[in-house]
Amino acid sequence: MRKYLFALALLSLLIAESGTAYAVVLGEFTIPGIGTSSNSSSTGLDVSFAFQTDSIVTIPETIIFDSLVVDETDLGATFTATSATDPNFDSFAQYLTNGVDNWLLFFFSPIPGGGGVGQTGPESRVDRFGPSPFLQNGIDFAGFDIDSVNFTINDVNLGFFNEMGVTFMVFGQQRESTVIPEPSTLFLLGTGLLGFLFRRKLS
């Protein structure tokens, strides 16, 4: 019996201290097919995501997936950006978590040609850019660490309209609090059982 209680106490302590944070989907934004209305004979579409100042000026250091070119063979494909794969990812993630309702831009342009087109909207927007239960105060992902972002191509057509539609996803986890947490129930149980065994051994 004593060995059983001791093993249970150790197991409780291990479980209490083994919490691991895993990235979850914080937001999933579907952008329907939009076209450039350009009759250029394009061979691909140059894609990027970025933040803008008041839906006017693109912030260069937040451009991710820059120089990524896709075509019709990429239909259904998913592309991922992380801090290890994209030099602007950390700046992009900072704007996702700064507590400000920044403007997010999805942009693509035909190659060769030009005349790109984009879809922009504030992070808090509830039609094409939301909603998400993880939006803090209905604004952005403040309080979370962003691990990666990706987009899946739902629609892509080269030709007169050069059309594309995507689903954009944000992955992350809640930032660890600097406040000292209260002991968990399992930790208290384990400590109590160890104390009980020690007291019995002394008596």
- What is the CA-CA span between the terminal residues? 17 Å
- Segments where pLDDT lies below 50 for 5+ residues? 4-19, 126-130
Instruction: Please bin the fraction of helical residues.
Output: 10-25%
Number of domains: 2
Average the pLDDT over all residues and give the rounded result. Answer: 77
H/E element order: HEEEEEHEEEEH
Shape label: globular
What gyration radius follows from the Cα positions, in whole Å?
24 Å
**What summary fits the major beta sheet?**
5 strands, antiparallel
Individual helix count = 3
The assigned structural class equals: alpha+beta
Percentage of β-strand residues: 35-45%
Tally of extended strands? 9
Descriptive key words:
four-stranded antiparallel sheet, 203 residues, 3 helices, five-stranded antiparallel sheet, globular, alpha+beta
Task: Describe the protein in words.
The radius of gyration is 24 Å and the shape is globular. The protein is of the alpha+beta class and 203 residues long. The protein folds into two domains: 1-19 and 181-203; 22-175, no CATH class. It has three helices and nine strands. It has helices at residues 2-16, 89-96, 185-202, and strands at 24-34, 44-53, 57-58, 64-70, 78-81, 103-111, 117-122, 144-157, 163-174. Strands 2, 3, 4, 6 and 7 form a five-stranded antiparallel beta sheet that branches. It has a four-stranded antiparallel beta sheet with strand order 1-9-8-5, covered by helices on one side.
